[in-house]
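Work Package 4 report. The design task specified in the project plan requires that, given a folded chain encoded as structure tokens, an amino acid be chosen for each position. We show below one input record used in the internal validation round.
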């Protein structure tokens, strides 16, 4: 059976060049809603390599697939909503969580 993971929130950050926003981590919730799991994009890509699937769910219950793609800007692999499913739901509409607490982020010099 292929594991299918529902993404419920995302974490983004800006990366060079051109300060584009990328998703660098996500959280998934299993169907029993017992526990959430945090994944970095690297572990998501590794899971996709094992044929695991990821999706986000619209308020009406429809599922939008998540795909990997190679970014034209930084030539790294990122994840996004499958372009064929953009009308169903967009990953970036999910809650943004995690990252640095605001107070810490404000006092952390930019690298
Ligand atoms: Zn990029």
């Amino acid at each position: 059976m292929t594991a299918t993971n529902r993404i419920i929130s995302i974490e983004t950050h800006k990366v060079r060049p051109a300060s584009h926003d990328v998703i660098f981590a996500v959280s998934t919730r299993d169907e029993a809603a017992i526990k959430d799991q945090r994944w970095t994009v690297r572990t998501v890509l590794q899971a996709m390599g094992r044929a695991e699937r990821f999706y986000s769910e619209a308020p009406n219950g429809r599922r939008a697939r998540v795909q990997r793609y190679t970014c034209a800007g930084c030539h790294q692999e990122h994840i996004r909503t499958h372009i064929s499913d953009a009308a169903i739901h967009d990953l970036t509409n999910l809650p943004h969580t995690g990252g640095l607490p605001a107070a810490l982020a404000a006092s952390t010099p930019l690298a």
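The chain has one domain: 4-93. Validation will be extended to a larger panel in the next phase.
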